[in-house]
Amino acid sequence: MLIVPKGNPAQVTELADLAKDFHPLVKDFLGVLNRRDRLGILPQIIDAFEAEDNRRRNRVEVTLTTAAAIDDALRDQITAMLRAYLQREPIVEHELRPEILGGFVARANDILIDGSVKTRLETLKKALLTRGEDEIQSRRDFISY
Questions:
Q1: What is each CA distance from 44 to 8, 41, 59, 86, in whole angstroms?
Q2: Which fold, 58-145?
Q3: Cβ neighbours around 79 below 10 Å, total
């Protein structure tokens, strides 16, 4: 069955070229999506399929953010740490973000591991400000009117 999506002729040609090597079941599925005018949700279907496949294979997608490029040895070391912590096989995607200053941030679904220098400095700043406020407050107690 030939899949002829509605809309852009370039998309029709591209999809037809891709579909020639697909399994018949996939071709039929794409045909159903097309007949029901649902080809637009194909990216969400693919994302859901990948998420289910990762769940079944005990894998998790992790975004690893560093301030600078890291070598393979360090990446492997961080991946091993993530594997032990998450108890799943991490699929690591690396991002560079100089604004974190140093260290790394790892995000896997709703789990955040923030070992960045930026966060450590912000935490230290808050602690110093709180301590300063507490110190001022405690000195007031000694002042008599």
A1: 20, 5, 19, 25
A2: Glutaredoxin (3.40.30)
A3: 18
Q: What is the mean pLDDT of each run of 10 residues along the chain (145 residues)?
A: 53 71 88 88 94 97 97 96 97 97 95 96 92 73 61
Q: What is the dihedral of CA 20, 25, 28, 33, to 10 degrees?
A: -100
The ranges assigned to domains in the chain are 1-57, 58-145
Spatial contact of 102 and 128, defined as CB atoms under 8 Å apart = no
**Tokens encoding 32:** 């159903």
**Coil, helix or strand for 6?**
coil
What's CA 39's distance to the chain center, in Å? 25
Pairing of strands 104-108, 59-66: antiparallel
